[in-house]
């Protein structure tokens, strides 16, 4: 008995010593596509539709838990640099410098791709007489040449701010008439109270006909029309909608990207696959966005008897 204890003790010590000599992998993944817990960071302007994606995924896989943090785009990219966040959902992919950074840090490049297309909606109060805008109008307003109050979801670092500054102002600064709130929901709240201002939010905050809160908001606000520069006819103005985004008619359109820092088939991969296949694409569609991976357009047909 005494000798057996000595042998067992020596064996345990040897195994422990060998384990300590092995290089420790900081990125060990133990979850699976249907089981485990992960943290993701999501651009706040996509919050309503991503909440629906997570809700359906977790109901399908009760042992899977996706904990999402909704925040400005720049903070999502900061989170991606930490070990605790494996996936972010934002409005752009990785550039070459970021690709190289992660390759050096992790030994592999994160996957990224477009899942859907979102429209940046202009919202105005129901009592605001002006709801039709050309791109030149928007440039004059955002730059401060026209002194119309503008309500944004942040002063900088949000995808909406970056998109409008890049697309409409081409890098020029916003005017002093542009004010910031605490997020998209706050933008909507301000516009409901002010009939002299315009606001900018992602279409999933105001374009889901199946969401009672959004339908109630649309009794106090309305969507602005923007000049269609891609239409064959002149003086055509369109609202953001699934159809106008799909057919390239709405000019303020941007992609929704996943960026996945995972080199194994795990929970992040499972959630990404879900969003890019039929069920997830249908959720994007029901939220008023344009699916990027699957053609889900309804077509009328006749059956001959």
Describe the model.
The chain has 305 residues and is an alpha/beta fold. The chain starts with a helix and ends in a 14-residue tail after the last strand. It has 11 helices and 13 strands. Helices cover 36% and strands 22% of the residues. It has 2 domains: 119 residues, D-Maltodextrin-Binding Protein, domain 2 (3-Layer(aba) Sandwich); 137 residues, Periplasmic binding protein-like II (D-Maltodextrin-Binding Protein, domain 2), CATH 3.40.190.10. The strands form 2 sheets. Strands 1, 2, 3, 4, 6, 7, 8, 9, 12 and 13 form a 10-stranded mixed beta sheet that branches. A 3-stranded mixed beta sheet has the order 5-10-11. 38% of the residues are buried.
Question: Nutshell version of this structure?
Answer:
Helices cover 36% and strands 22% of the residues. The protein is α/β, with parallel strands linked by helices. It has 2 domains: 36-117 and 255-291, D-Maltodextrin-Binding Protein, domain 2, CATH 3.40.190.10; 118-254, 3-Layer(aba) Sandwich (D-Maltodextrin-Binding Protein, domain 2), CATH 3.40.190.10.
Number of helices: 11
- Counted up, domains total 2
Overall CATH class of the largest domain: Alpha Beta
| Range of strand content | 15-25%
SSE pattern: HEHEHEHEEHEHEHEHEEEHEHHE
The CATH architecture assignment of the largest domain turns out to be: 3-Layer(aba) Sandwich
The CATH superfamily of the largest domain is identified as: Periplasmic binding protein-like II
Q: What profile does the largest beta sheet have?
A: 10 strands, mixed
Helix content: 25-40%
Shape verdict: globular
Class by helix and strand content? alpha/beta
């Amino acid at each position: 008995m005494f000798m057996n204890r000595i042998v067992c003790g020596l064996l345990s010590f040897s195994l422990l010593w060998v384990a300590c000599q092995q290089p420790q992998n900081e990125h060990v993944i133990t979850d699976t596509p249907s089981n485990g817990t992960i943290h993701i960071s999501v651009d706040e302007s996509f919050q309503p539709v991503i909440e629906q994606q997570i809700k359906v995924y977790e109901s399908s896989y009760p042992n899977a838990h996706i904990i999402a943090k909704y925040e400005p785009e720049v903070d999502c990219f900061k989170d991606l640099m930490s070990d605790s966040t494996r996936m972010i959902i934002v409005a752009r992919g990785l550039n070459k410098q970021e690709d190289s950074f992660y390759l050096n840090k992790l030994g592999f490049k994160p996957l990224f791709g477009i899942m859907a297309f979102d429209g940046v909606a202009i919202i105005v109060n129901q009592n605001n007489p002006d709801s039709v805008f050309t791109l030149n109008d928007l440039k004059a307003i955002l730059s401060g040449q026209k002194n119309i109050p503008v309500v944004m979801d942040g002063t900088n670092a949000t995808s909406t701010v970056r998109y409008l500054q890049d697309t409409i102002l081409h890098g020029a600064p916003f005017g002093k008439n542009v004010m910031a709130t605490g997020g998209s929901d706050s933008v909507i709240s301000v516009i409901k109270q002010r009939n002299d201002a315009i606001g900018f939010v992602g279409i999933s905050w105001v374009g889901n006909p199946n969401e009672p809160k959004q339908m109630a908001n649309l009794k106090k606000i309305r969507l602005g029309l923007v000049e269609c520069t891609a239409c064959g006819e002149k003086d055509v103005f369109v609202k953001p909608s699934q159809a106008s985004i799909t057919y390239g008619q709405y000019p303020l359109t941007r992609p929704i990207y996943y960026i996945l820092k995972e080199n194994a088939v795990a929970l992040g991969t499972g959630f990404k696959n879900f969003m890019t296949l039929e069920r997830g694409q249908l959720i994007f569609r029901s939220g008023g966005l344009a699916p990027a991976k699957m053609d889900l357009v309804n077509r009328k047909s006749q059956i001959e008897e």
